[in-house]
Task: inverse folding
């Protein structure tokens, strides 16, 4: 048990810091949260800069176009980029953090060659077409049908809550390829081009006022059979790989951002006099403990995955469960710190974050579902209904 | 960087678990409860022989020469087993009080304020707050004579109140080996920093062990007890209580191990705060899952809960820890200009899926 970084890791950190210090001041300002095309352009150009500097797909395997870095180096990367206030992965979230890693783990050589380099270069954006109106937590109840016709699947159905659908080039799509099979068995995982005929994207307005996600209607969309990742009807297993990345690693970098926000909230409270309120002050102190612990938990999980290599374990559910709740508590405390004079002003920092934090206990598996996973798969309690 | 235990550390931990299984099984635990707690000198010597107290003394001084991370693992086991007695104080006194390292002497601590002293009667020495001293011999006799027993909530931990006058007296021999930790000065400072922080850390380790144990007990019971024709563990309401127990314990464990490695007072405060909460709340949830059985004297759950409450008030309370952690929230580094524009990350609901 140690917290010592190797010389190579420290060297990596040093180089990364230098690079960030050199490039970040020249970045264009962040676009407005509602201007999706501008956000896409901003996020992809940052990705391109990472790619050119050799930091794209850091922890992806080398034969998937990655740098084959250790999980620890990846953690250093997340830590340093967040600390430096570098742009967040944004519209590249799905491609970089779970669709890409799934293709790297489960795709054929041809599929990796087709899809992974554009993700790393920031040329192509992915979205996630898993949820349906009648299949949310019970994802395996999905009904979108894919019927084989020659070399294509013909896909019809509806997806919902699809983040970034408006600007995506590809969709990791779950479809039912065998309606007769038990519900977990007849599913396949497809890569669907978002410009195919028959796709209609209708933006949904979030409670934060933005068009963050969308409904996606699929009317006889033709998707080539070669776009299927994994075997036909073996999509549920592939989906579990995707979800383990989504829950296990995708939110890790945000913990550093939360610690940064927490310090900023404390600074604001000191500035405006709210710091004298012992209840608020102690609440912020407690959050300091919580986010420190989450960061240490992450470091522990990384040590674990360094040992096992590859796909993150279900320990990610413990992280996701705790993190999603704490993120909400953080922005509640921020509102407290701003006081009535600031908490309701959407132009103030943290007001919108407070709203968007509400999604964290729902998206990527609700907290109730994570508790089921922790209880059944980690603690071994009997399955129930 | 690797927060996983080394093979040696695993071996140390399982050695301690085996030892406690042998010398302090459930029968001994219940016998200790019936006795009203107190120190079992035989057991104390066995713990001394196993190196629990001398663990962090250098080998030249007859110690084991290991560090806080190893100590934390052993105290975690002690917490799991509900081992009674002033374990932390005696460990802290090793090298300061003759015989403490070997388990020949029993040393307790008077932490100041109006906190009662545990296991005072029968102790050979007391570490005393404020004056950074040790009371022993005649002075101790006088201290004990003036002490008033408290009807202790925890049947395994006898408590006494000591006279305020005694506590205030500065006439105790100074603890030369104890160094003032600069970051230790803060609200509720009762001990020279290093001692107080080590005490808080090791107490947090006991809390963590207890939190993990009550989680196990809850899961075991939920997997054995049937109602409505099903195991109660198949009911989601029960399952979710268990999941929350683990979700409290694991981040606390990470915080604890990291704090043991860095020895940083702020990290120690974080570990104590989270471990206290995990121990207390897990014991409560465990009790709930045991139903009426959980409310009986026979079940061990109440022993965990009572001790957890007691430990939460020791060395570093939640209020003190939170103030320390709040004070640590210093100014933020400025963001690089480019990405700072537009108010940081406002408005991004980054979660997909
Ligand atoms: C901001 C945001 C972005 C999203 N992005 C995407 C995306 O890009 N792609 C995508 O595919 N999906 C996306 N989702 C969808 C998300 O995965 C689902 O909302 C989530 O899985 C819950 O499904 P649901 O909304 O249908 O709720 P439901 O499943 O209907 O759940 C409603 C309530 O019932 C509870 N519940 C349901 N089943 C159980 C059970 N077995 N035990 C206990 N409680 C239960 C839930 O916890 C919840 O509280 C996004 C969601 C949000 C909020």
Result:
């Amino acid at each position: 048990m140690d917290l010592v970084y190797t010389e190579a890791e420290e060297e990596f950190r040093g180089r990364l810091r230098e690079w960030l210090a050199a490039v970040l001041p020249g970045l264009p300002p962040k676009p407005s949260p509602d201007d999706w095309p501008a956000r896409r352009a901003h996020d992809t150009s940052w990705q391109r800069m990472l790619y050119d500097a050799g930091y794209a797909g850091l922890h992806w395997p080398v034969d998937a176009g990655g740098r084959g870095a250790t999980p620890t180096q990846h953690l250093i990367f997340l830590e340093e980029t967040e600390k430096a206030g570098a742009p967040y992965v944004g519209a590249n979230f799905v491609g970089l953090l779970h669709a890409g890693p799934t293709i790297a783990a489960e795709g054929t050589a041809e599929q990796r060659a087709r899809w992974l380099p554009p993700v790393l270069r920031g040329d192509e954006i992915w979205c996630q077409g898993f949820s349906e109106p009648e299949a949310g937590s019970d994802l395996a109840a999905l009904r979108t049908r894919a019927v084989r016709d020659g070399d294509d699947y013909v896909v019809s159905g509806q997806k919902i809550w699809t983040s970034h659908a408006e600007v995506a080039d590809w969709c990791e799509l779950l479809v039912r390829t065998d309606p007769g099979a038990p519900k977990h068995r007849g599913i396949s995982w497809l890569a669907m081009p978002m410009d195919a005929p028959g796709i209609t994207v209708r933006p949904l307005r979030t409670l934060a006022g933005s068009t963050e996600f969308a409904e996606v209607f699929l009317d006889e969309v033709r998707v080539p059979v070669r776009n299927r990742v994994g075997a036909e009807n073996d999509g549920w297993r592939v989906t579990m790989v995707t979800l383990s990345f989504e829950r296990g690693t995708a939110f890790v970098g945000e913990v550093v951002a939360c610690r940064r926000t927490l310090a900023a909230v404390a600074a604001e409270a000191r500035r405006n006099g709210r710091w004298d309120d012992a209840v608020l002050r102690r609440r912020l102190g407690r959050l300091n403990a919580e986010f420190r612990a989450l960061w240490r938990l992450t470091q522990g999980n990384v040590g674990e995955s360094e040992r096992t290599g590859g796909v993150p374990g279900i320990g990610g559910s413990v992280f996701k469960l705790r993190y999603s709740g704490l993120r909400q508590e953080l922005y509640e405390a921020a509102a407290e710190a701003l006081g009535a004079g600031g908490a309701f002003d959407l132009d103030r920092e943290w007001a919108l974050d407070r709203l968007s934090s509400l999604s964290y206990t729902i998206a990527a598996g609700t907290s109730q579902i994570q508790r089921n996973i922790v209880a059944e798969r980690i603690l071994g309690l009997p399955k129930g209904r | 960087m690797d927060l996983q235990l080394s093979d040696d550390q695993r071996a140390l931990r399982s050695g301690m678990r085996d030892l406690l299984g042998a010398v302090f099984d459930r029968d001994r635990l219940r016998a200790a409860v019936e006795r009203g707690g107190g120190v079992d000198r035989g057991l104390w010597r066995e713990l001394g022989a196993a190196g629990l107290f001398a663990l962090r003394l250098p080998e030249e001084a007859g110690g084991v020469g290991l560090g806080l991370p190893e100590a934390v693992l052993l105290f975690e086991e002690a917490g799991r087993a509900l081992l009674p007695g002033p374990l932390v104080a005696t460990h802290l006194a090793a090298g300061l009080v003759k015989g403490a390292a070997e388990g020949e002497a029993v040393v307790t601590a008077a932490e100041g304020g109006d906190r009662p002293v545990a296991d005072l009667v029968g102790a050979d020495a007391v570490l005393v707050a404020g004056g950074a001293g040790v009371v022993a011999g005649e002075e101790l006799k006088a201290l004990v004579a003036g002490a008033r027993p408290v009807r202790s909530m925890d049947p395994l931990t006898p408590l006494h109140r000591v006279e305020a006058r005694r506590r205030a007296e500065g006439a105790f021999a100074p603890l030369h080996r104890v160094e003032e930790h600069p970051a230790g000065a803060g609200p509720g400072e009762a001990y020279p920093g290093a001692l107080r922080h080590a005490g808080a850390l090791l107490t947090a380790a006991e809390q963590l062990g207890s939190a993990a144990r009550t989680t196990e007990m809850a899961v075991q019971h939920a997997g054995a007890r049937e109602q409505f024709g099903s195991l109660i563990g198949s009911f989601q309401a029960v399952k979710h209580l268990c999941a929350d127990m683990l979700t409290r314990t694991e981040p606390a464990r990470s915080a604890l191990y990291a704090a043991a490695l860095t020895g940083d007072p702020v990290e120690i405060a974080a570990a104590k705060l989270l471990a206290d909460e995990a121990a207390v709340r897990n014991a409560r949830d465990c009790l709930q899952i045991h139903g009426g059985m959980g409310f009986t004297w026979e079940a061990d759950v109440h022993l965990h809960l009572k001790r957890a409450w007691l430990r939460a008030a020791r060395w570093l309370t939640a209020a003190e820890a939170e103030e320390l952690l709040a004070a640590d929230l210093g100014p933020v580094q400025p963001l690089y200009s480019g990405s700072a524009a537009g108010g940081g990350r406002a408005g991004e609901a980054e979660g997909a899926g």
In short: Chain B touches chain A through 75 residues (CB under 8 Å). Residues 283 and 305 of chain B are 5 Å apart (CA to CA).
